Amino acid sequence: MLNRLQQAGIFLHAFVRTRYGFRFSNRAALENWQQRRVSHFLQSCAQHIPYYRAFAGKPLPEWPLMQKDQMQQHFAELNQAGISLQQAQQFGLAAEKQRAFSAPLQPGIAVGLSSGTSGQRGVFLVSDKERARWAGVILARVLKPAHLRQLLNPFAKPLSVAFLLRANSKLYTTVHNARLHFHYGDLQQSLSALVNWLQGVQPQILIAPASVLAALARAQLQGSLQIQPQQVISVAEVLEADDKLLVQQAWRQQAGQIYQCTEGLLAYTCEHGQLHLNEEWLHIQPHWLDTERFTPEITDFGRETQAFVRYRLDDVLRVSSAQCRCGRHSRVLSAIEGRQDDVLWLPAADSSMQPVFPDKLRHLMMQLQPAIEDYRIEQHGMIWLIRLQEATQSTAEQISALQHQTAAALFTLFLQQQLQAPEIRFAGWEAMPAGQKRRRIRCQQSPHKE
């Protein structure tokens, strides 16, 4: 267990190295450095992580591919403390039930739970050292120069950050100190309660899931919320074009992104507004779905308490061909499209199953605004169930016309992609439970399985 001085030293080292170091001359130099870090990390894993002892001396491609179900099955063997999955889950769930997130599971080890959009809640362990390093990395990535100057000026007011999430964690509260006031907003509260809370906090930096940012932006535009954040950052959900537009209209800010999950900090928006993979701290092997999209395989060489080696995510990322002006050589993403089960499937003329990627559907639904405020599309085999939330009180005739317009746009898309059209059904809008992650597009059952 580290004392405060030791944690401060680790934090400062990670901050300076991330913000001012890692200046690679080209992509090859970055990859060579990654390989050295991975090699050293694998040696440590073979010594300290029971599950990997049999793989000592082998190169990364010969280590086993890991996914969530395997991680949970071998949880105790994949962390240095020997903590079982049941121990971690019980501790994490008790903390959420009591809404008390400060206590460690063991001295120096904190536990966190993911939101569980796949039906299985992810569990992660982090040490004091890893929390301090994470805090240094995250602040180095997101702080604007003006905010950094404010933090360093002892005569300036503390920097105020509002972080709205379903659950708090010692991982997040690590950043709270005398110069940086970290305010946790519990998404189990109602929107009106969060609005009142934010009025009192008056954050300079606002961090929340995309759907929450959109709801707060609407409140700002309607006059019930009056805050002026100088930076707005989306986390936990896919940031869609309509969310970005609302943030821009409400606060005249371009929403940035932090792509953070159980497996670590995967990507961040740089000072030029481009979304970069965090490849200075992670090795990310792409598994390509087409020429633009891939699912990532993660080896986190900054995590020691719980090992993530060749961990396969089912998130779909779309790479950009643009060269960022910031000078970094990490991959740039044009979008985080969501999970693989956000991809819908339809048969083509030759009976082969072809993907309908979420970005196509999001673009189509964006064209229907401002008539609709939100939507959900679920695939159940060859039936697509669509729920529309109208932006205003609509008559039955207006709702029918909007449904007809939606169906016509979808059938045009199917025709353009030469796909067999599913049956389109509409159902009434149902609000999500408080704190649940928004997923607008989801494949509940693919035609493969009929």
**Rg measurement, Å:** 23 Å
* Terminal CA distance: 53 Å
Q: Per DSSP, what share of the residues sits in E-state strands of 2 or more residues? A: 25-35%
Main pleated sheet:
12 strands, mixed
Overall, the morphology is: globular
Mean pLDDT: 86
Helix content: 25-40%
Number of beta strands: 20
Structural category = alpha/beta
Low-confidence stretches: none
Number of helical stretches of at least 4 residues: 12
What report would you give on this structure?
It is built from 12 helices and 20 strands. The protein is α/β, with parallel strands linked by helices and 450 residues long. Strands 3, 4, 5, 6, 7, 8, 9, 10, 11, 12, 13 and 14 form a 12-stranded mixed beta sheet that branches. It has a 4-stranded mixed beta sheet with strand order 19-18-17-20, with helices on one face. The radius of gyration is 23 Å and the shape is globular. The N and C termini lie far apart (53 Å).
Short summary:
The chain contains twelve helices and 20 strands. The chain is an alpha/beta fold and 450 residues long.
Question: How would you describe this structure in keywords?
Answer:
450 residues, 4-stranded mixed sheet, 34% helix, globular
